[in-house]
Amino acid sequence: xxxxxxxxxxxxxxxxxxxxxxxxxxxxxxxxxxxxxxxxxxxxxxxxxxxxxxxxxxxxxxxxxxxxxxxxxxxxxxxxxxxxxxxxxxxxxxxxxxxxxxxxxxxxxxxxxxxxxxxxxxxxxxxxxxxxxxxxxxxxxxxxxxxxxxxxxxxxxxxxxxxxxxxxxxxxxxxxxxxxxxxxxxxxxxxxxxxxxxxxxxxxxxxxxxxxxxxxxxxxxxxxxxxxxxxxxxxxxxxxxxxxxxxxxxxxxxxxxxxxxxxxxxxxxxxxxxxxxxxxxxxxxxxxxxxxxxxxxxxxxxxxxxxxxxxxxxxxxxxxxxxxxxxx
Length: 328
Prior knowledge:
The chain contains twelve helices and eleven strands. It is α/β, with parallel strands linked by helices and 328 residues long. Helix 1 runs parallel beside helix 4 (116-124), helix 1 packs across helix 8 (181-192) and helix 9 packs parallel to helix 10. The longest helix is centred in the middle third of the chain and has 24 residues, at 201-224.
C-alpha cells in the first residue's frame, strides 16, 4: 500500500550494472512509495550526491565506498532520517567493514564476483515477475560478471543469444550516453517495466553509434599508445575511457592498460590488467591516496582519479607492484 508523501531515492552507478540494479529496485518497490527518484553517482561523488539528492528512504546500488570519504559517509548515515539499503559487489574500503558504516541493511557479496544486478534481483525476486531475471542478466553480462552459478542457471531458461544481444545494446547505448542523466533515467524506467533494451529507440540508435565509434577508437589507440615498463596508457581518447583501456592493453600487450581523461587538474582513468597476481582494486586503494587521489574497483578492472601531475608517479608505483608479483 502506498503511503502518500513517502519517497524512495535510488542512487546508482551510471553503467549498465547500476542502471539495471536501479530498474530492478524501482520495479520491486514502487508500489510502496508515492515517489521514486533516481540519481546517478560514483565513488568519488557519492558523499556530495548523498547531501544534494537523498531524501526519504534510500537505496544505494553498485557504488563502491572509497577510503577518502568513508568516515564522512559514516557520519552522514548516522544522522540520516530514513532507511538506507546498500547493495554492491565491489570490495569494501581497506580496513573497514561496510556493515559498520550505518546502513539499515546491506546486501553485498565479494566472493562469488556477482554483479550488483544479480544481487539486487536475488534480494527482491519475490516482488518481481518471473521474467524479470533477464534484466539482471543484462547487467551481469555488461559488467563481465556472467559466470556465477545464478547466471548460468538463469541463462539456461532463456535463449542466451537474445539475452546477450540485448545486453550488448544496453551496454553500448549507455556508453554512448555518458552524462545524459535524463536519458539514463528514462532507460531505468523502461527496464523497470521489463521492456527490452532494443525497443528503446534512442538507446538503440546510440548503441549503433557507439559500435562505429569503437572501431575508430581502436585505430586511435594503436596510433597514440605509450608504454612505460609493463604499463601502457593513452590520454584523452576520442571515445569511451573503459573501452580505450581495454584497447590499450590489447595493443601494447603489456600487463596494465590505462586510459585517462584530463578534467581540469585531475585525470579520471580506467585501468585493466591481465596479470592474475595483481589485484587492481587493492593496489589502487593503497597507492592512490599517497599521490592525492582515490581509486578502486575489481581485481582486473578498476578506476581512479589522481592529480594530473602525478600520472608518472602512478605508473612508477604500478610498475613496482608488478615487479612484486614476480617474486610471489
